[in-house]
């Protein structure tokens, strides 16, 4: 048993998808699914102590931010909808984004912040505020990567617009058949890029020249889907140059920024950086074992510790996770299994139960290692150490897995199962990695 050196932070690169390799039965992270899962399990805003960074299109214009929704001078029925949803004050990102989005003359915006910081509510509010219900044509277009994500946004708009019954919404999603060549009267259309493009060009349901607000949500997910990226650009080309353009993304890579700057002219840029995961408050150990069964025995010996608070156990493949969960259950332990073969809704239900403490131990693969905060987790077990396709130590995934414990200054523990010369080598690489970058 050994104690790792600790580090003081690292660059968290998101979206670099680790392939779980092996016999190909590992779970791949699907960005759109991950985003949906986050929306399904999120009940409150994420904690984030970073400062919002604002880069104005015109640095000489005054910078407005609001601390209350009342300051935005919304239509009373819209304000009522906002409060009815339980939003009392604007979130950090909304404080800056809302006055910009509602400004006259209009401003373009690129906003980047992680999931759960209030982006969807922000642009839903902007769209609802923007439309003139007396004009019976489509005025706002909102593009999302998938059918499910479009529905999620639609739900927010419907709830928020509950007291604005004259504002109508349509979903441009596959299978939603429309009368061709009869122009839509819905003020807001939300959908996936392919269907929106068809509705604008092939079926002529929407006159793109009459669109005055264009929202592109989850740009990072969108550009990871090649077809979507190109279709979004094609939709964008149909619009008037003076249409207000808003783009949202959960991540910050150069590829997203390049795309964003290509589609959004003269943008204001708002960023709320993710709180970095750190290993500072986490005690890390490894346990030497001989093979799988030996690791299992070691885990059973630890079991009493696992259930003091809550624990997550990571395996390399679905198969291993399935075996481990079954074996633990056979020993009489109550565990939950989260695996990529489950539908998103099923996964959300498992995480929900775990968050509520119905199960204390969650066995999973990498599908769960990103973006999902369960604050009660105080112990993470790497039943299999994280490795990339070439079998090298996957330092980033390690940080993501372990970073789930010890969040927001809590104390956490991590136990690594080392079962071969090879995995000893991997744990040494990880140790070296996190000691190297600490200075
Ligand atoms: C992780 O860090 C170690 C030590 O710095 C390095 O040898 C290894 O290549 C890194 N792994 C990957 C996948 O980059």
Automatic annotation (TrEMBL):
Transmembrane segments: none annotated. It is found in: Cytoplasm; Nucleus. GO terms for molecular function: ATP binding; hydrolase activity; RNA binding; RNA helicase activity. InterPro entries: DEAD/DEAH_box_helicase_dom, Helicase_ATP-bd, Helicase_C-like, P-loop_NTPase, RNA_helicase_DEAD_Q_motif. It holds the Pfam family DEAD. A motif (Q motif) lies at residues 67-95. The keyword Iron-sulfur does not apply. Keywords: ATP-binding, Cytoplasm, Helicase, Hydrolase, Nucleotide-binding, Nucleus, RNA-binding. Residues 100-270 form the Helicase ATP-binding domain. Coiled coil: none annotated. Its EC number is 3.6.4.13. It catalyses: ATP + H2O = ADP + phosphate + H(+). It is an enzyme of class 3 (hydrolase). GO terms for cellular component: cytoplasm; nucleus. Residues 1-27 are annotated as: Disordered. Residues 67-95 form the DEAD-box RNA helicase Q domain. Residues 281-439 form the Helicase C-terminal domain. CDD domains: SF2_C_DEAD (cd18787). This is RNA helicase. It comes from Poecilia reticulata (Guppy).
